[in-house]
Amino acid sequence: MPSAPLDTFKGRRGFVTIAACLGWFGLAVQLYLILWGRWVDGASLLGGLVRFCSFFTVVTNTLVAVALSCAISERDSAGYRFFRSPAVCAGITTSIVLVSLAYNLLLRHLWTPQGWQWIADELLHDIMPALFVAYWLFFLPKGTVSVRHVLLWTLYPIVYFGYLLLRGNAFGDYLYPFLDIGTLGFVKAMTNALGVLAGFVGIGLIVFLIDRAFGRKAHS
After folding, report:
1. What is the CA radius of gyration of the chain?
2. Coil, strand or helix at 75
3. What percent of the chain has pLDDT over 90?
4. Rounded mean pLDDT of 170-177?
5. Residue 1 in domain
6. In a domain, 39, yes or no
7. DSSP string of 77-132, one letter each residue
């Protein structure tokens, strides 16, 4: 795979622009659906916003959309450089692949979304993961990721799991059934959490190996 600078790729800007727009669109649709549901039920809209921002899928897709948006911007601030970093994007790739695999293996069978919910569901769990993997694989330099980066990336799901457990203990809402301590018990829920974390590390190591292999090829 090539690892030349992004600007040498014909059609790169168009691809990334479309991907970024789809990412923000999927998030906007999902936010609207949650807030509309809260409105219909007479529940707090602020609570709906907090709930929306609490999903790992939403947080990770937001990182994806931000990274893609930064990639098509000409600004050169520290934040923009951070989200253009190949190592950071490799970590986001690991996270969004986990989102897709966890949803399709553990959650998809639990419901059958329709209409706009189906559109948001497919965008956030299937289309955006595929687009961001393609962005990372074809449009970013390789050879910059180390095992240390993989270890640093694990801080993201670890911190998220900690937040999720604290939130669930406070409100009785764990968001994901395989992490529901109230239903499964602490041991089972933590076993599931560790299993997901192990999956994240496994994906991260695969990303690392791909990065190293393509980096060596580019310099050979």
Report:
1. 18
2. coil
3. 85
4. 90
5. no
6. yes
7. SHHHHHHH-HHHHHHHHHHHHHHHHHIIIIIGGG----HHHHHHHHIIIIIHHHHH
What is the token pair recorded at 56? 């790992």
Tell me which residue of 189, 191, 188 sits closest to 174, measured CA to CA.
Answer: 189
Residue 96 has pLDDT above 50, yes or no: yes
User: Of 96, 214, 91, 69, nearest to 149 (Cα)?
Assistant: 91
| Residue 91: inside a domain | yes
pLDDT at residue 5, rounded to an integer: 44
Q: 182-210, pLDDT tens digit by residue?
A: 899 999 999 999 999 999 999 999 999 99
Half-sphere exposure of 91 (CA within 13 A, CB side): 22
- Residue-number span of the structural domain to which 163 is assigned: 6-219
- Residue 154 CA, chain-centre distance (Å), reads 13
Give the Å distances, CA to CA, from 196 to 89, 157, 179, 199, 219: 20, 9, 10, 5, 35
pTM of the model: 0.92
Number of domains in the chain: 1
For residue 184, the number of C-alpha atoms closer than 13 Å in the C-beta half-sphere is 18
- Whether the CB-CB separation of 27 and 58 falls below 8 Å is answered with yes
**Chain segment 4-51, per-residue pLDDT in tens:** 444 445 578 999 999 999 999 999 999 999 999 999 999 999 999 999
Given a cut of 80, whether residue 158 has pLDDT beyond it is: yes
117 within domain boundaries:
yes
Could you give the angle at the alpha carbon of 32 between the alpha carbons of 80 and 182, nearest 5°? 95
192: Cα within 13 Å, side-chain hemisphere? 19
